[in-house]
Amino acid sequence: MTFLSRIASSSSSALMTKQGLLTALVIALFSQVASGRTLETSSNGSTTFVWTIQDTYAGQTFFDTFDFYVGPDPTNGLVNYTDRNTAFGQNLVYFSDNNTVIMKGDNTTTLPDGQNRNSVRISSQKQYNTGLFILDLDRAPWGCGVWPAWWTLGGGQWPYTGEIDIFEGVHDNEHNQVTWHTGPNCTLTPTDQFTGTIVENNGQLNLNCDGTAQGNAGCGITEWSRASYGPTFDAQGGGVFAMKWDEDGIAVWSFYRAAVPQDIQTGQPSPSTWGQPVAMLLPTSCDPITNFVNHSIIFDITFCGDWAGNSYATSGCPGTCPDRLKDPANFVNAIWEINWMKVYKKQVLNGVITGSSSERTQATSWIWLSSLVALCWSFFSWR
Ligand SMILES: *[C@@H]1O[C@H](CO)[C@@H](O)[C@H](O)[C@H]1NC(C)=O
Ligand SMILES: *[C@@H]1O[C@H](CO)[C@@H](O)[C@H](O)[C@H]1NC(C)=O
Ligand SMILES: *[C@@H]1O[C@H](CO)[C@@H](O)[C@H](O)[C@H]1NC(C)=O
Ligand SMILES: *[C@@H]1O[C@H](CO)[C@@H](O)[C@H](O)[C@H]1NC(C)=O
Ligand SMILES: *[C@@H]1O[C@H](CO)[C@@H](O)[C@H](O)[C@H]1NC(C)=O
Ligand SMILES: *[C@@H]1O[C@H](CO)[C@@H](O)[C@H](O)[C@H]1NC(C)=O
After folding, report:
1. Is 23 a pocket residue for ligand 4 (Cβ < 6 Å)?
2. Is residue 337 annotated as part of the catalytic site, yes or no?
3. What pTM value is reported for the model?
4. N or C: lower Cβ tally within 10 Å for the chain?
5. Which residues contact 49 (CB under 8 A, 6 or more apart)?
6. CATH no., domain 50-346
């Protein structure tokens, strides 16, 4: 019997004792190492932490803690957002044979002139203040006149509590766009710390995130990958989007299916190992805590409207957007197919340790030394 399995096999019977608790602590610490898990360090270097699961949205319970939005589309889409019963009744939401979660626009009804197309917009009942939000999906909506988004929205008065558009695009675009909308006093810092391209407005980088200014453009970053939105994203099996929101700012990563990191698949995400994000809002020019408050998670699919409607004529799509809306065959790809969405929160491992780096090293060493002592003690007292 190895040292570790000895400890592991002793744990279940001894859990209620002090020795058992120490043993459990040691197992927890060792399993971090044994699983090859990377511990994360805060940017100021004073805390070590891991991202631990807070909420899982998947399978048959996916919609249980979401509200179905039924008002008019604030972005002026030609859409009729349906309530929960209508959405289930018309098969706009359902679960596939593989237990993936489906959310889609109506692709069966031929519409008369001027009637909006049925679709779905859902909003999480739970509100978050910081976290790591990860979405694994096989398909995301696209098509002429289609405008989907996976985003988070602050409670209270828009845009003062912020909006984070993590996944968004229109028509047959191939590049996902990440956008922030905030109150005044928040700008995007142009740096080489992300791989995407800052969206321009009249030939100028649009760095102002103020949602009350310049026609509500917000500040946006377009991904470089051609597989981050649209037909190519779906064709290669979808992938994973991740948004990290903490004191260090707000960062977004995306991974096409074959590139999804192992730590995401095993549920132990370590963003520090993912390389540069595609988009990043640095805290130096936009406080991520005060500008983003009480965020719900939203999925929607709208049609035409402020983005897909206004860009339609120059998109290469045929005819006009309102004409396009009438034929259900145009909306077979207006569909989300989701494997899971998970929200992780920080769990600090060594508390806050202040002082110089050598003091920090000593403190960290002390934690490992005490863990080792606890390990030896529990091993020998078990015998
Ligand atoms: C370092 O950052 C963490 C959050 O990541 C914070 O809790 C802590 O107070 C900070 N420590 C110092 C010394 O600024
Ligand atoms: C619009 O959605 C509501 C439910 O939210 C539904 O009752 C109604 O039938 C829909 N309208 C049309 C024209 O389908
Ligand atoms: C279920 O999974 C299998 C194998 O991964 C795949 O071939 C099939 O198309 C999936 N079915 C659905 C409804 O997604
Ligand atoms: C509508 O979409 C669903 C889901 O993708 C698909 O199974 C169905 O065949 C489509 N219906 C039509 C008439 O295209
Ligand atoms: C955020 O939510 C909390 C709890 O509901 C509430 O007390 C607070 O006023 C909200 N903050 C804002 C800015 O809306
Ligand atoms: C704007 O942001 C700066 C730095 O984040 C802060 O010092 C200042 O108080 C803010 N001003 C307003 C009006 O919120």
Report:
1. no
2. no
3. 0.85
4. C
5. 39, 40, 41, 42, 346, 347, 348, 349
6. 2.60.120.200
